[in-house]
Amino acid sequence: SLDIQQKNGDPSSVSSIFVNLARLKEDQNALEEAETYFLNALETDKSIYEGPHLYVVDDLNGLGSLAEKQAQSEKALQYYQEALAMIEAGLGDQNRFAAQTYIKLGRLLSQKQDQEGIFFLHKGLKVQETLNAEGSLQVALTQRWLAEAWRQNGEKAKADSLLQICAEALKAKKGTDHPE
Q: For the chain, how big is the Rg over CA atoms in Å?
């Protein structure tokens, strides 16, 4: 399929195939192969779209996640910051790609005990709340990550309050007998 798309000259289809292959390889824990596919998707998308584009942001977030899985936090930070720069350059932040960028950047910075991590997690949570139904799993997970960051930062009361909200949403979605 990839060979056919490359020969037919449809770069957006080629990029989509690269991303799907990257995610498949990531799921198989073949991280170096996944990185190659994400880099190919990034190169293809940058050649298609002039300037910032949501697909480029998605490619950068994928590369950042892979770098994190390979314990390369500085490399991940660079990818997330590049994605953030594109969002700030005019893509807007009321979309799932922006939410992902804020959350990924926030989680990474929070692991480094950086105060900006809380800022980005909170910003990602606000976008998630706008895009998703009340009590959605995406919102609940982001709430949990923000609560963990607050707890690490010594803000136990804020963390406990948010964890209570998160727990109620998870119980509603997953049931009371779920281990989370």
A: 18
